[in-house]
């Protein structure tokens, strides 16, 4: 099961690469066309914006899985194992709540977004802003899994070190870049 989850996140990483590359290529081609031919591709501006939205929200889930978001590591690093476990549990409870609100907000806004069309492509805005479902659900699933592992006593020292920001060796930083 873990290999399947790892494969899923590897696919997400490749999707992020494709979105970033697609965004960069579209903007570059549009800039070159505007300066050399005095015209541009109207679809490239719109799609670059949508790719950026998707890139940001998919990247948030991947970064959350890898403990890549900002945290108050100086406080957590001063605590012992029990304090870190409590902070990690509280943090995941807050993340579940906030992600649930985000998911619910996306759900409430979705009918409005679905009925609206993008000005150039005609694409439903539900496709653009519906990425909130993925981000909300993804963060909830990760946080619930972590919370279950905390409550059942299966959290590892490596996870606690990552939560406290103590696993930032040169090798780990190179791996993340």
UniProtKB/TrEMBL annotation:
It is a multi-pass membrane protein. GO terms for biological process: C4-dicarboxylate transport. Coiled coil: none annotated. One of its GO terms (molecular function) is transmembrane transporter activity. Keywords: Cell inner membrane, Cell membrane, Membrane, Transmembrane, Transmembrane helix, Transport. Residues 23-152 form the Tripartite ATP-independent periplasmic transporters DctQ component domain. The chain crosses the membrane at residues 12-35, 47-64, 85-107, 127-144. One of its GO terms (cellular component) is plasma membrane. It is found in: Cell inner membrane. Part of the tripartite ATP-independent periplasmic (TRAP) transport system. Belongs to the TRAP transporter small permease family. The complex comprises the extracytoplasmic solute receptor protein and the two transmembrane proteins. This is TRAP transporter small permease protein. It comes from Rhizobium terricola.
